[in-house]
Specification:
It is built from 15 helices and 19 strands. It is α+β, with helices and mostly antiparallel strands. The longest helix has 23 residues, at 183-205. It starts with a helix and ends with a strand.
């Protein structure tokens, strides 16, 4: 199967992309976190503040503050137990328990890992892995790597003025064991959700940040001691508390660097880590896509040309003017809930809908290396929405125009039954959902400009917007449940997206909900 066919099937016909007769070996499942052995560790403070209000005074953090930051981004925050019925005729029940984080993940498998290069007073300067299980840092390499990282980014960021740089990686096996080839789509989305959470937490801590999707992959993996057959970095996010040069381009004369040149500057490191699985299967399509997506020269960092967003010609429905929501991120993260069969149909006001859409899209704006900073770009991912029982708005499918804060009618009517028919699993009753949002993007994932790397970048940006939607829904008192088990072709037809060359990337039902009968404990006091 060609890579183009594989990615098409991954989105539109998952059965053709999946490995036939796949059986999940639950007894040999991997841990949801990576554990290093035999390396120096730095324990982080367990006295994490329960509110992030008043945290946004710009300053270079100390070890204590870095620990708080990492915990809010990706730490273990909740322990949950739920009982599921396996056989209604024999009354068989199964207990499911999991450790959860503020950034959600498909199946709570968390395929991503966090690494951070730190230069703060009370820590040895160097590259660390965030050990989620023990809330501590594991020192991988000690030393000053400012120049190395800056050159791996094509000298597009003044790393010397940044106190830290975060690396978001993907461990392929951590969710391939369950989802097989579908894991490739999930891994990009999960990475994006994590990045979205990181950027929101950064704002609360007063840190300046930017996301670099384009970098010398092998050089960065070499710095961290990663095997690209097992794990690879997907994004690099520098953090600064002082003025920093952020650029999407960099000077051409400084950009003639290759991965091979940089790798020769550092000795390889062999690190021992534990994943628990004893029978790790091969995932050739994932490693092949990862290999063809890699950038080996800093001259290969293109910019996406600004395009005018195509807006539906349907009648416009102006939404009420609203300001940005003011909420405590810590409280919203703790209370965030993903309803399954727990949605309850209730009338949603126009103000609630306006707050949800405006907050999610406005908070999504971020500094990145895909577009020139001085040019106005339409968002590469946007929102379409099917509404039912929203005050003063006819039931139907709409395109949200974030520039005018309005909805454009696409297809009036009650689409809930049609959307339900497109679900591969009936784990959500869409008849109880007033708002069903679809994050959309171009079908070709900017392949002409970004190559196959464009696919994972598009999934990451979709995930970043999903996290903003989940936080915004929590801030207005509703729940949201991201879904990939839906019919993309059906949704594209509802929104009439074929002429626009767009497709729906993920479906998020949002609405009021009832509490679930489960045991849930916060891992903080």
């Amino acid at each position: 199967m060609s890579l183009d066919e594989f990615l098409h099937n991954l989105h539109f016909d998952i059965e053709k992309a999946s490995i036939p007769n796949w059986e999940v070996d639950w007894e040999d499942k991997p841990l949801p976190y990576k554990l290093y052995r035999g390396l120096p560790v730095v324990s982080l403070s367990l006295e994490v503040p329960l509110t992030l209000e008043g945290q946004n005074q710009p300053s270079i953090p100390d070890q204590r503050k870095i620990g708080h930051f990492l915990w809010y981004v990706y730490g273990l925050t909740q322990f949950s137990q739920s009982v599921f019925s396996l056989d209604s005729t024999e009354n068989i029940r199964e207990l499911m328990q999991s450790y959860r984080r503020f950034a959600p993940s498909g199946g709570a498998l968390y395929p991503n890992e966090l690494y951070v290069y730190l230069k703060i007073e009370d820590l040895p300067k160097g590259v660390y892995h965030y050990d989620v299980a023990h809330h501590r840092l594991v020192l991988l390499r000690e030393g000053d790597f400012d120049s190395y990282i800056a050159r791996a980014l094509g000298n597009r960021c003044e790393i010397s003025s940044c106190f830290g740089t975060v690396f978001v990686s993907t461990m392929f096996w951590k969710n391939f064991f369950k989802y097989n080839n579908f894991a490739y789509r999930l891994q990009g989305l999960d990475a994006g959700v994590l990045i979205g959470q990181l950027l929101e937490v950064s704002k609360r801590f007063g840190f300046e940040s930017g996301v670099y999707f384009q970098f010398l992959d092998r050089a960065i993996n070499h710095l961290l001691g990663l095997s690209e057959q097992e794990e690879s970095v997907y994004a690099v996010i520098p953090l600064s508390a002082e003025p920093t040069i952020w650029s999407a381009n960099g000077r051409e004369m400084d950009r003639m660097v290759s991965s091979e040149q940089l790798c020769q500057e550092l000795k390889p490191i062999k690190l021992n880590h534990y994943v628990r699985s004893q029978r790790v299967k091969e995932y050739p399509m994932l490693t092949k896509l990862n290999a063809v997506s890699m950038l080996n020269s800093t001259t290969k960092f293109p910019l996406i040309e600004a395009k005018e967003n195509v807006i539906s010609e349907g009648q416009a429905v102006a939404l009420p003017h609203v300001e940005r929501l003011s909420y405590d991120l810590g409280s919203v993260c703790r209370n965030r809930f993903s309803p399954d069969m727990d949605f309850i149909l209730g009338k949603v006001t126009q103000v609630e809908l306006a707050n949800l859409l405006h907050e999610a899209t406005d908070s999504f704006l971020y500094r990145n290396d895909l577009e020139a900073a001085h040019k106005k770009h339409e968002p590469r991912v946007s929102l379409n929405v099917c509404l039912y029982n929203v005050e003063g708005i006819p039931n139907g499918a709409y395109q949200y125009d974030s520039t005018t804060h309005s909805l454009r009618q696409v297809h009036l009517g009650d689409h809930r039954l049609l959307l339900q028919s497109g679900m591969s699993l009936y784990n959500v009753n869409l008849l109880q959902v007033p708002i069903c949002i679809h994050v959309t993007g171009v079908k070709d994932y900017y392949k002409t400009t970004l190559g196959y790397r464009g696919y994972r970048i598009q999934q990451m940006e979709a995930g970043m917007l999903v996290q903003r939607l989940l936080l915004s829904s929590g801030a207005v008192g509703m729940g949201g449940h991201p879904l990939l088990g839906y019919d993309s072709n059906l949704c594209d037809q509802i929104y009439k997206m074929e002429p626009q060359g767009k497709t729906s990337l993920i479906q998020i039902p949002i609405g009021p909900y009832r509490q679930r009968p489960w045991l849930l404990g916060g891992l903080c006091s």
